[in-house]
Amino acid sequence: MDPIDEAGHRRLARILAWSDQGVAALRQLEACARTLATELQIGPSAATVALEAAIRAERLPPPPEPPDRLRQEAAAGHPEGLTPRVDDQASALRVGAPQALPIVDRIHVLEETRTELAPRTPVGLRPRRELPPVPPAIRTAQGRLLAAVLHPEAQAELPEDALAALAALPPVDLTTYRLSRVAAWSLPRYRLDRGFVSLSLLLDQGRDRQERWLAGPERFQDLRAVLTALDDPALVLLGRPGAGKSTLLRRLELDIAVDGLRGAGDLVPFLVPLNAYRSQGGTVEEQDPGAWLAERWRQRCPLLPALDSLLGEGRMLILLDGLNEMPYRDDAGQRALTEPWRVWLQDLAEHAAGNRVLFSCRGLDYSAPLSTPRLPVPQIQLEPLSDEQIRALVSGLAGDAVEETLLWLERAPDWNLLRTPYTLRLLVDQMLAGEAGALDWVALQVAVLRRALRRELERGNPSLTGADGESPVFTARDRRRVLQTLHWPDRYALPEDGRLFDRLSQLAWTMQAGRAGGEASQVRIRYADAVAALDDPAAEAILRAGHALGLIEDDAQRDELAFSHQLLQEHFAARRLATAADLSPLTVAWRAAQLRPNLADTLAGLGRADPLPPAPGSGWEETALQAVALSRQPAAFIAGVREHDLLLAGRCAVRLQDLETERAQSEQVQAGAGRRPFDDVNGIAACHQPLVR
Hints:
The chain is an alpha/beta fold and 693 residues long. It is 50% helix and 7% strand. The chain contains 30 helices and 10 strands. The strands form 2 sheets. Strands 2-1-7-3-6-5-4 form a 7-stranded mixed sheet, with helices on both faces. Strand 9 (552-555) and strand 10 (560-563) form a beta hairpin.
């Protein structure tokens, strides 16, 4: 055997282990690792590390049963007896019979044959130019992660930095690509529960039907179940902000990647956020979706075949997150952006069968144009959490405090705020910290920010404390307030002596003010533009601190960043809006005479069953609804909003009244306290109630 034939070492180790010589098998693999390090200056492959883990844990499956053909060849004197060749195993995998192979042999097939993605080269003699250098620790982590995927009993407790490194590693084949997706969505900051989900199906009956979108009776608890039940090449996942659309797409990419690693599926998942959709050398409207996706794939996977090649084989599951978040100037621009995606979908369905495409979107008014008689696109509605699902999710999150939390929920005046997983998790976190209060969305976010600050300060995170104990963004007085204050005098207060939160509010304001369209969306910004927007000598330190607190996501590969959730972006923009003298970003045309197109023209362009599009919006509506709670003079704030958007002013007034009602009821339930409303809030709300109705 060639000393650097890594596959040969693995075969010999398996034979030794199957012969009850586990120690000898491990020594064989150790000898292999030494030889590779000495001769080629590389570490063992993920397959070798996974095999070693299986032998050490005594989880090695029994020898495979040979196919009938091999039995016949063995009886005729086949030189390899009853042991299938690598090529035979790869063939078995490709024809859809991976279950006939033991798990460790599946590792062997997936690792060595490259799943038809690259020319075959001897293991250990791969051309150096095709493979980026990988530190031995990362190769070991890669093998441990693969072992955990293929051996569910094996627990691979990898540190966060190792998972992040694996996620960012340029893949050299489908195995390493799928492992990178598993690593990315296994990071602690992603909670990818696929339970507690209820999905209903809306089927397109045609524009001229009395009801265009009819809901089917069946409910699904998993996106994979929807993909299995339907054979449509394109689907749309609908849900409001915080409902979990992005989480479900990440979970789907993870599940499909695991299926591929286990030999249980052949689709290759590719998740892309559409808020990054922008032109490259032309206007956004002129950008071709196919070319844009191909470039995104090339940037992420420069060593893999082009996206067009994989699409031609019908192997891709394209996950496009945030159809309503593509940058656009106005409603006409948004429709102009959607049209190329519709054309691309139809062309893909007709000329590259087998691929699947799944969009996420906020509402039908954005996604309905994708569906045509030529290619109907079913819509999957992500339903709000039911009362039973809320209780079940709390039971899974609250740990030892589950009874106390459920009792608090039973007394809560209104559960509507809790019907998304995002807000419910914030509430449970607040309960676990012993800071139960009213069901106030803004206060929930502030409480989470305070706890994140306390956690990182207690850990001594240098992004907040500074390398020498002095931070340019967070003062010593701020640190004392966070670490020593148990009950803040203002439910919305954050430490403000330092520049951190003031500058993050400025960044969020600039990002929202600079976006192209009128729809609320999560905005991405180039790193250099973010530094310029902060306009502060400590700009980079501020961004590092925001990242340390989980508020900022930094995409180093594309040199872009964004707030980690759209609702956080809107919260920080609201903190600036609450004190702004200029409320012009809220301006919309709300008088009938100002609307373009007018109502008659709009109705003329709709089918009988098409929904009436929403009134024009500035994209600042949710931000304003948070700002009215943060404002120290809510009556004056509402009066200012009224000059720019009368309907939004009414919504702000009623929101203010709702906050006070929720707070008063919670205080009465928990402490028997009387109600302490804002000055003249009832009068403000009463004046606007007829308009809101």
